[in-house]
DUF2569 domain-containing protein
Amino acid sequence: MQFSVWYWAIVLLFIGVPVFFALRSARKPSQNPAELVGFGGWLMLLAIGQTLSPLRTLATLGSSSDGYNQLMLVPNGPVVVYGEVALLLAFLVLQLVVLVAMLRRSRRFKQLFLIQWLAIPVVFILDAAWVSTALGVPVGQVVTGDALAAPIVSFVLTGLWVAYVYKSVRVRNTFTRVRASAQVASAS
């Protein structure tokens, strides 16, 4: 597999430019860090991405329906289809839990976002192992260059956002809400 120079230029553009601006904005401290609260700045981009991520997972399920229909005719095909759909639905539930934590400004958002990031390669590995085992084919036939590129890019880009979530003053100021039961217990 060989990539052209234009491919790498586009990758650099999509990854390098946001990283450059994120690092540049991180260098100059805010005049009043307490004012950095709420969904603004880079956190708004993260919020948009997190809101769209469950839709992307649903789109992946929808676009795979033709392949699933073909797999249903193969021996052990239904096992593969049901297992893969269950795995994607579990990941979808995790994405929705992270989204709700973000919208509620929960303190747990940072940890949940980290778990969601770590789940990307876990879901990919479990899916590849499941398909390989159920169909009795080597993993090399299941995992091709095209199938490997999307999770790697997703993992790297989400990793940049995880770094932002753990370094950002705005994130630290925004996600402070504790569950009501914990607030009542601490007030007594």
About this structure: The chain has a mean pLDDT of 79. The chain is about 80% helix and 0% strand.
